[in-house]
From TrEMBL:
Residues 283-294 have a biased composition (Polar residues). SUPFAM superfamilies: Lysozyme-like. InterPro entries: Glyco_trans_51 (IPR001264), Lysozyme-like_dom_sf (IPR023346), PBP_transglycosylase (IPR036950), Pep_trsgly (IPR011812). It comes from Sphingomonas edaphi. This is Biosynthetic peptidoglycan transglycosylase. NCBIfam families: mono_pep_trsgly (TIGR02070). One of its GO terms (molecular function) is peptidoglycan glycosyltransferase activity. The chain crosses the membrane at residues 21-42. Pathway: Cell wall biogenesis; peptidoglycan biosynthesis. Peptidoglycan polymerase that catalyzes glycan chain elongation from lipid-linked precursors. GO terms for biological process: cell wall organization; peptidoglycan biosynthetic process; regulation of cell shape. Its EC number is 2.4.99.28.
Length: 328
């Protein structure tokens, strides 16, 4: 029997078939949108149980250490250090720092060292809902989830989730677990110096350590510590603490014995003796203008630019560490 030609199928049936395909496509897209909204909305109230990065550590045979701590309990200097290091406009933007993105694009196009323009909101979207790496598809999904978080969570929740899921060491997630790992006490008792050290390892947590940092990591930590006071004075953390009942100062509890945590075989396990908080006057810094805080990691190829005013977060490659006399 001869096969029926397409031309013999009535036009209205072909149109119906086409509408059926696009109808299913629309249903799938609509379903994904509803699912993503419910997913983001759920994490407004409950901690994310696991992330893609955590699963990667588990599949690699490493254990993971995480210990959720609310912002009401966490020392405020940890929030300020994160803003100073990663996103000085956190309370001003709506999820995207367009100036930082344009600056990073120009720098990358000119052949300079690759820099990112991601805000804390974008980093949280990537850490919680997506995977590490690049690509246009992931960037588009990151922008979408950032938009949802900014509108469904608010700044305080974004910061709280960020400081509990960001990688702070090999197999270690969150500021509280990082504080236990490096300093032997929880994040409610961190000093400004300790908070700055945690913030300094955030861009490259598998390559940097907060215990007795050297060279580049130490100088970057010094810069962050010196700017914590400016974040407080200029109210750059106001969107996080406005109307909060969190105490401003807490009496540090007795230090706990440091636990054996994943990845400690890669770094020094003995914490250094307590150090005084870094005084900004002891550090050679170039202070930004009156428009507010501006900080990035010091350029590795130009020591004189250790505190230059770049309105973007940076994720530089780790240079060979050299012992330098620093107040840190």
């Amino acid at each position: 029997m001869a096969k029926r030609s397409t031309s013999s199928i009535p036009a209205y049936k072909r149109r119906r078939k086409g509408r059926g395909f696009f109808g299913w496509l629309i249903r799938i897209v609509f379903g994904l949108i509803i699912f993503s909204i419910l997913w983001v909305l759920a994490y407004r109230f409950v901690p994310p149980p696991v992330t893609a990065t955590m699963l990667g550590d588990l599949f690699a045979g490493r254990g993971i250490e995480k210990d959720w701590m609310s912002l009401d309990e966490m020392d405020r200097d940890m929030v300020r250090a994160s803003i100073a290091a990663e996103d000085s406009k956190f309370c001003q933007h709506s999820g995207f720092d367009w100036d930082a993105i344009q600056d990073a694009a120009k720098r990358n196009a000119s052949g300079g060292r690759i820099r990112g323009g991601s805000t804390i909101s974008q980093q949280t979207a990537k850490n919680v809902f997506l995977w590490q790496g690049g690509g246009y598809a992931r960037k588009a999904a990151e922008a979408y989830f950032t938009f949802l978080m900014e509108n469904l969570w608010g700044k305080r929740r974004i910061m709280e989730v960020y400081l509990n899921v960001a990688e702070t060491g090999i197999g270690t997630y969150g500021a509280n677990a990082g504080s236990m790992r490096y300093f032997g006490h929880d994040a409610s008792a961190m000093s400004a110096t300790e908070a700055a050290r945690i913030a300094a390892v955030l861009p490259l947590p598998k390559k940097r350590g907060a215990i007795a940092p050297k060279g580049f990591t130490r100088s970057y930590g010094n810069t962050i510590a010196a700017r914590i006071g400016q974040v407080r004075r200029d109210g750059l953390d106001a969107c996080v603490y406005e109307g909060s009942t969190a105490p401003k100062d807490k009496t540090p509890p007795p230090s706990k014995a440091q636990r054996e945590l994943p990845g400690t075989e890669y770094e020094t396990a003995t914490p250094p003796p307590p150090e005084p908080d870094v005084d900004a006057s002891e550090i050679n810094l170039t202070v930004s203008d009156e428009t507010g805080l501006s900080i990035t990691e010091p350029a590795e190829d130009d020591p004189a630019s250790a505190a230059t005013n770049v309105e973007a977060s940076a994720e530089p490659e780790e240079p060979v560490q050299q012992e330098e006399p620093q107040p840190f």
